[in-house]
Design goal:
mainly alpha, disordered N terminus, disordered C terminus
Length: 463
């Protein structure tokens, strides 16, 4: 489940405002030691609100919500409370997998505090190597998140049986991924290069190349990609093309993008060309970006690519950008583009000017999305009350509900959970309230990077 803070069904790389519900249980979140005191206090306040409803659970089925609560308690660092809550989960509940997820979360919470021994002891209580492996992945991520890369590598080294290094290799790749997400791309590459492989592994080399792309090392990424002898190499063409365009080599970027098959099920070539368009637009080459977008034959995907052009044009020409946005044929792209224009105007010319522009927008959900863009700016400027009032004028019910939660979560992540508590308490029964409050607490603890991932989360409109 989930929704979008902005245009529906449009995933864009953007500075995050907030997130909604995750689709699956997540062994994620930043360690409490790395979270600011106000944000941690807000997450713990949400957990405390959930704890108040525990006596109101009416039967064993409803007591399944205790698993959600225990996972949230572990996420905020209260491992003892999580273990105690877990004992209240009725043994009659058939879905044992969900209980295992809570045990995994407790193991990760131990790792987040630096108690690796307790974390590993908890892992050993879990059945099946597959489940243990999942938990070990989350443990090494937690170790990297708290800055203990050496400890994570020790955990990885101890995970495999003698002569069977597969688990160690798997965990080293997870460690490198975590290092990349933490911004340590050079460290990630060093971790991958230290794997004692008899021959180059295409998957590992692909991961190295992606880290090099993240590190803006175009020459290194191209060299690594060219050495990969596997169809998997094509997965690099999109990121490589974007980096080439970012560095001004549009012709090279297009050659890279157009190595990909056209009209595939997932639109890989079209998406790669869209990445080139976005980079050209960001560099101010709007005419070049339009010409590149014209190479995309699929009309809807072409319009999606042109949203980046509209967004860039809005920095200097709001009327022209709005005209272009309204002229896009794809409804989703049109909504996203209108929102981008109004959001930029709210930032640069002020909220009153943006609201005046919105008055001329009659189409829904474009008008609602534009109002959400204004609310985003108001939240960024610290005026949560004004943002809430603005959202009251959003007429599209799903967008309004999702945006309200996004704004409430943003406020909670700055230390004010009152609005988020209010939304969670709209559930009619204790079960629903506990589940909502527990999820909210976990969302507050997540990093912005985690909240950007396409797992039912909310993406704000791009800048």
């Amino acid at each position: 489940m989930g929704g979008h803070f902005g245009a529906p069904h449009v995933h864009v790389a953007a500075r995050l405002l907030a997130a909604l519900l995750i689709a699956t249980p997540a062994l994620a979140g930043e360690p409490p030691s790395k979270v600011g005191s106000a944000r941690l206090a807000a997450a713990r306040a949400l957990v405390s609100e959930g704890e108040k409803d525990v006596p109101r659970l009416r039967d064993d089925a409803e007591r399944g919500a205790l698993r959600n609560l225990a996972r949230a308690q572990a996420a905020v660092g209260d491992v003892a409370a999580a273990e105690k809550t877990l004992t209240g989960v009725p043994s009659s509940l058939p879905d044992r997998q969900n209980t295992l997820v809570v045990v995994q979360a407790i193991a990760v919470a131990y790792a987040a505090t630096g108690d690796t021994a307790a974390a590993l002891a908890t892992v050993r209580t879990l059945p099946a190597l597959f489940v243990q492996g999942q938990t070990l992945e989350a443990i090494v991520r937690a170790q990297v998140a708290r800055g203990d890369v050496a400890g994570a590598l020790r955990t990885a080294a101890s995970a495999s049986a003698p002569g069977e290094p597969n688990m160690t290799f798997r965990l080293m790749r997870v460690i490198a991924e975590a290092q990349t997400r933490a911004g340590d791309r050079a460290g990630a590459i060093a971790t991958l290069r230290s794997m004692p492989l008899a021959t180059p592994d295409p998957d590992v080399e692909t991961q190295v190349a992606l880290a090099q792309v993240e590190n803006d090392d175009l020459a290194g990424a191209l060299a690594t990609a060219r050495a990969i002898v596997s169809p998997n190499r094509l997965a690099l063409n999109g990121p490589l093309a974007a980096l080439q365009a970012k560095n001004g080599d549009v012709a090279g970027a297009l050659r890279t993008a157009e190595e990909l098959p056209e009209g595939s099920r997932f639109g890989v070539r079209e998406l790669a060309i869209s990445g080139v368009v976005a980079q050209q637009a960001a560099r101010g080459d709007l005419n070049g970006a339009r010409a590149t977008a014209a190479r995309i034959k699929d009309a809807a995907m072409r319009d999606q690519a042109l949203v980046a052009v509209v967004r860039a044009q809005a920095k200097t020409d709001v009327p022209g950008a709005l005209t272009m946005a309204r002229g896009l044929g794809d409804r989703t792209a049109r909504v996203s583009a209108v929102q981008a224009v109004v959001t930029r105007e709210a930032r640069d010319a002020g909220v009153p000017a943006a609201l005046q522009t919105i008055a001329s927008v009659l189409e829904e959900p474009a008008k609602s999305a534009a109002l959400i863009g204004v609310a985003r700016v108001q939240v960024e400027r610290g005026d949560g009350a004004a943002a809430w009032t603005t959202l009251g004028n959003v007429t599209d019910p799903p967008l309004r509900a999702n945006a309200e939660r996004a704004v409430a979560l943003t406020l909670a992540r700055t230390g004010d959970p009152a609005r988020l508590v209010e939304l969670c308490r709209r559930s009619a029964d204790a079960y629903g309230r506990i589940v909502a409050l527990a999820q909210a607490a976990e969302d507050v603890m997540k990093s912005e990077d985690e909240l950007r991932r396409p797992s039912g989360v909310v993406f704000a409109a791009a800048d």
